[in-house]
Amino acid sequence: MKRFNLGPTDLSVSSAVLGLMRIADLSDDAISRLYGKARDVGINVFDHADIYGGELHACERRFGDALRLKPTEREQIVIQSKCGIRRGYFDFSKDHILQSVDRSLAALKTDYLDLLLLHRPDALVEPEEVADAFDKLQAAGKVRHFGVSNHTPRQIDLLKTAVRQPLVANQIQLSIAHAPSVAFGIAANMAGLEQSIDRDGEVVVYSRINRMTLQAWSPFQQGFFGGVFVSDEKNFPELNRVLDELAGKYGVSASAIAYAWIARHPANIQVVLGTTSPERLADIAPGADITLSREDWYRLFTAAGHVLP
């Protein structure tokens, strides 16, 4: 599977990320098989968050208990987690960040996170508190790299007024059918066209300029938690027709083509795959190494309902 460096770091990461928010109820054997298949197809990045699994750190705990990674295996993979979402509010306070990371490390049975992301923007954020927390985590060897999730460029710039470490990644929602971050720029200045509204401060362009790696979550979803668009002939007949046609052309599944649409972007966007099925993981993963032609990429773009002015 294609690899590249995470942001400006020397950390080599796979194009695909295995998202682990749904493993709380899986058996140890099922988690081991899912992890094994991920490694088999070339995935080396594993995505967690403190809130995944119903109870705090539940999915992290299941991962740690099921795998009990030996030091040599741990060194070969990238484990990232997120913090900042609490029941009914967001919290980027220094104490919460430090406490969350300590509990994540204990649950995962690891001494360090390769990457820590701030999960959702906290309107009450004090950048100096975040900076102090990051400094302590880095000095203690508990976190090697830092980033954000679902943040706009200006929110990132606010953090940068105090945070001393590079912010190397930003996880955002992105798919063919949910692509305001890409579609806006194509229709800029088109008055009266909803697509021309900038909803995130040109986060894709900002990330390329500032060497931040984007990670696309919900790569097969339509809208905001609107359901999977692959095989949804009722709502996306034209998109699925083109997906199926290109699947035949490139010799992969329709889901792999949907993956390839994201991976084709020159920003080197990672794709977060949340499946718990080893078979589906193997079905999607080939999309990482397909390079769609410009014509095919734009055919999918317009088939999803986006406009070319």
Protein model, in words:
This protein is α/β, with parallel strands linked by helices. It contains 12 helices and 12 strands. It has helices at residues 28-40, 58-67, 71-74, 94-108, 127-139, 153-160, 180-186, 203-209, 237-250, 254-263, 278-284, 294-303; strands at residues 3-5, 12-14, 16-19, 45-47, 78-83, 85-86, 89-90, 113-118, 143-149, 167-173, 213-217, 270-273. The strands form 3 sheets. An 8-stranded parallel β-barrel has the order 3-4-5-8-9-10-11-12, surrounded by 4 helices. It has a two-stranded antiparallel sheet with strand order 1-2. It is globular and about 50 Å long.
Radius of gyration: 19 Å
What multimeric state do the chains show? Answer: single chain
Total number of beta strands: 12
Q: What spatial form do the alpha-carbon principal axes imply?
A: globular
Overall pLDDT level: 97
State the end-to-end CA separation.
35 Å
Main sheet properties = 8 strands, parallel, barrel
Helix content: 25-40%
Low-confidence stretches: none
Order of helices and strands: EEEHEHHEEEHEHEHEHHEHHEHH
